[in-house]
Amino acid sequence: MFRIAATAITVGMCAGAAAQAATYAEVKARSGVRLSTADLKQLMPGAKVVSRTQAGSTRTWENKPDGTLTASSDGRGSFGGRNSYATANGTWRVTGEGRFCVTIKWPVNPDDWCRYMFKVGDKYYAVSRLDDTANTMEFEFRK
What we know:
alpha+beta, Lipocalin, 143 residues, 21% helix
């Protein structure tokens, strides 16, 4: 009985620690700071990117200075929960309105999006629209 309770507490603590902001409202509640066009133009070129989707997939790539990228994905959350590893070429850019845009030509379900980026502590979250119900994507950037 003690083991079951201890396991439940441990799992709950780990899930809480790993929880990401699921909506724009949660990003705002955590005092998220929106990155400006200038911030994005400083951060993005040459950045190594880790992107986590709401469905559980982790994708990685490097924003090459010429605006291209080659991405890989573990495919978690796709095709009924099975992993479906893939690589694909794509492009990235920063818009004058302060959005980070990515196009990735995955074999199935290509990405073609632009997102506003917010920093919360040492994590970054992206939203497609500035609406409290908008879902987020979690990102890591490093040079």
